[in-house]
Every structure is written in C-alpha cells, then in structure tokens.
Amino acid sequence: MRIYNTLTKKKEELKPLGNELLIYLCGPTVYNFIHVGNARTLCVFDVFRRYLSYKKIPFKFVMNYTDIDDRIIDGANENNMPAKEYAEKYIDEFLVDSNGLSITPPSVTPRATESIDAILEIIDNLVDNGHAYVAENSDVYFRTRSFEDYGKLSNQDIEQIEEGHRIEYNDVKEDPMDFVLWKSSKPGEPSWESRYGNGRPGWHIECSAMAKKHLGKTIDVHCGGLDLVFPHHENEIAQSESYSGEVFSRYWMHVAMINVDNRKMSKSLGNFFTVREISDIYGYEPIRFFLINAHYRSQINFSKKAIESSLASLKRINIARENLERAIESADSSGEDILLDSAKKRLGQFETSMDDDLNTADAIAALFDLIRDINTSEGQSKDSLSKTAEIFDIMTGVLGIKAETDGDDIPPEVIQLLEERKRSRENKNYAESDRLREVLLEKGYRVEDTKDGQVLRKNN
Ligand SMILES: [Zn+2]
Ligand SMILES: [Zn+2]
Fold first, then answer.
1. Left if phi > 0, otherwise alpha if psi is -120 to 50, otherwise beta: which for 295?
2. Which residues contact 168 (CB under 8 A, 6 or more apart)?
3. What ligand is nearest to the CA atom of residue 240?
4. What ipTM does this complex have?
5. Which of 43, 61, 140, 163 has fewest C-beta within 10 Å?
6. In sequence order, what DSSP letters do the residues of 320-362 get, joined into one string?
C-alpha cells in the first residue's frame, strides 16, 4: 500500500518500522460538538484502519483527547461547571457522534490531563538541554530556532514563516517564533504542579508526550487535518525530535478541508455545521458516506444536496445487497458463475484503489460497478451468488457502510401479515392482498411484488 507522505511530498510504500504500524491521530479538543471537518478526519482514518485490518497489517492506533484548553476553561466558566466535568460532557457527546459514524474505537485514547507526567518529562528535558526556557512569568517556551529542521513538514523556512504567518507576539518570549510548552496558571484555573510552579500544558506538547508514551519515540504514521500541518504538527516535530534526537514520525497523512456551499466553513459566516445537527435530520450514515466518497486529499463541498445524494447512493447499495440475499435464497447449485468472476475483478479494482493512497472515491466506484453487475445478472448459481455477497460485504465493511440485510429485526406480526398476504395472492384474492399491503404500510413496511415473490422494505 502506498500513501502520500506530507513530509516527503510523495507517495511512498507504507511499511512499519517494527512489528506493527504505530499510528497517532490528533483527537478532538473537547469543548463543543464536533463539526463535519472533524468528522471527515475521523471517517478517513477509520477507513484506513479497517483497510489495514482487511490486509492483515497489525497496527496500534492512538487518538488523544485534548481535555484541557482555554476554550474548555471558558466554556466551563460560562456554564458554571468544573472544567473537568465540562470536558467529560463533550467526550461523551464525541462518543455519541463517533459511534453514530461507525468509527472503530482506537486502541488507546489517552487524555492530556492524565498524561501530565509524560508531558513534564519532555518539557524538563527540553529546558535542561537548552531547547526551552522559563520566561519571567513562569511560562515555559520552546526555543524554536534551536531546532534546525523547523519548517520541514510545511516546507517553509523559519524566515518565511515569520513573515507569512500570524505569530503571537508577547513581551516574555525571547523570539516571536517561540511557542508555549507550559502555561503558568491564573488563580482558579485547573493546574498541576511542576518545576515551574503550578500550570498546565500547551496544546502541542500534549501530542508529543502522548504519542511517545503510548507508541514510543518514533512512530510510523501521524495523522490529522490539513489545518494542523502548521503550526501544530511542525511544533510536535520540533519538540519530539529535540527531545529524543530521533525521527518523530516516518509518515504524515493529512485530510483536506471541507467547504460549505462552496465557502470556507466558519462560525462567522454562519455556515458552520456540527455532526449532531446534520445527523438529527439525515442520520449518520449519509454523513459518513459523503465524507469518504471523495479522496481524502481533495477538498470537498458540503451541501444539503450532497447529503441527499449520499442517501440515494446508500439506498442503491442496500437494495442491491437485499436483492443479492433474495437471489441466494431462491438459487440452487445449477447456474452460471459469471457474476462471481466479475465480483472478483471488482474486488481487485477496489484493492488497487485503496492501495493507491487510500483512494476511496475509486474504491466506491468499484462497489457501484459490482452493484451494476448484480442488478443485471441472471441465472447465477447459489455458490456464485453467496461468494459475490461475501465480496460485497468486504467492500462495504472496509468502507464502514455495511449494508443492512434486515431479516432478524422484522417484527413477528409483520412476518405473519406477509405470510397471509402470500396465501391470499396464491388464492388470487387480490382485494385481501391489497388490504394487507395497506396494513403493512401502516406498520412502516412497504411490500413489492417481484418475480421472486414479495419483497419487504422498511419505509423511511
Ligand atoms: Zn496533535
Ligand atoms: Zn538537542
């Protein structure tokens, strides 16, 4: 499998350094509901790990919670609750959305507030080695110019950065390029003891520390949104590599941004959508489908229309899978294997796409090619059909859009009605069969008559 490495600006063969691929994803700062941009990162790297599992590549996946931050403290104050409780609330809300989006739980989900020792170990070392210093207000800053490779990820040198970016100036820093590792606490703020007095960690150092604690000094893949390349990931590299003297992450994968109605998503433009708001209207499934339906490095545009077209795509997927299930039930050992032959080809297409920098767009196209094959096939053997179904489920399983095959959750009284209707049709009592169709409709089920018999669909 090849992936595009932001660090080298090219696609590279993905190989773990050790026995398993060590992956770190910058997780949410838990001060609010997640927005669709956060969800894209989650869904993309969920597909990534589902595909690694499918390819039997062992991995360890760490995603942190940033559960201490200015925005958490502000939100907690506004709501008159302790910061810890406020963060806890949004971790719970995150998990609701994460489950809704079918995100596989990470191997470890460390929290910044539970990683203070690991954070201070790195800060103390950086101070001792001259890569960091204590300012007169007891904040600790990283001495950015002490790290020669600064800018290597975002491909800019330090002078360019100083001119081109909004750098935070203040009186206590030696150099405007320096960034904070430890903030001395104001009265009433959550704080932890340190050599520098009571304080709390800066955002960048948290990730360096949690990655090192749970994965080691050198990790294989560091993931995140494209907006984190600078300064967050650049700073993580500077801290970690100054601390360990070793490469921090061998590969860097970044997910592109989302526009809303062709404009940059922002709170001030009023086009800012949380996952919860959208899922309340459409459910989670079309959100996930929309987010993985394009290649992760291409910018995508969120709109009502895009979600509705995702719903339509999911419906096609579900119907094809149901049709396949019914065909399996009515088929026997005689018949052709043409469908299976083409399904194998589609799986090959699917894998080739996924191997090429996780190209989910082409992988989904392969799934729809398979659906077309299914919808036009006839007279296939039971074996051909059930093996095709296995391939179908592999694809939807990797994409995390597993089609419902229903069956088990149909209430018994509905099955009873279906049986009665079948009998009335056999007796050519069409008035009764029409009446039963109405009754089923009232119960939320739509029944269609096909050459293979009655087909039941849930009315949404
Ligand atoms: Zn991070
Ligand atoms: Zn050094």
1. beta
2. 176, 179
3. 2
4. 0.69
5. 163
6. HHHHHHHHHHH--S-SB-HHHHHHHHHHHHHHHHHHBT--HHH
**Closest ligand, as measured to the CA of 29:** 1
pLDDT digits (tens, 9 = 90+) for 210-240: 999 999 999 999 999 999 999 999 999 999 9
Please list, in sequence order, all residues whose beta carbon lies within 8 angstroms of the beta carbon of residue 128, skipping any fewer than 6 positions away: none
**What are the structure tokens assigned to 67, written together?**
């559960």
**Nearest bound ligand to CA 149?**
2
Reduced DSSP (H G I as helix, E B as strand, rest coil) percent helix, strand, coil of the chain, to 5: 50, 15, 35
Tell me the CA–centroid distance for residue 26 and ligand 2, in Å: 25
CA distances from 400 to 192, 224, 287, 404 (A): 40, 19, 12, 12
Task: Indicate which ligand has the atom closest to the C-alpha of 204.
Answer: 1
**What token pair was written down for 404?**
């419902």
C-alpha span between 145 and 129 (Å, rounded):
14
Residues within 5 Å of ion ligand 1, judged at the Cβ atom: 26, 207
Closest CA to 304 of 262, 365, 352: 262
Which pLDDT does position 370 carry in this prediction? 98
- Residue written as tokens 């894209």? 40
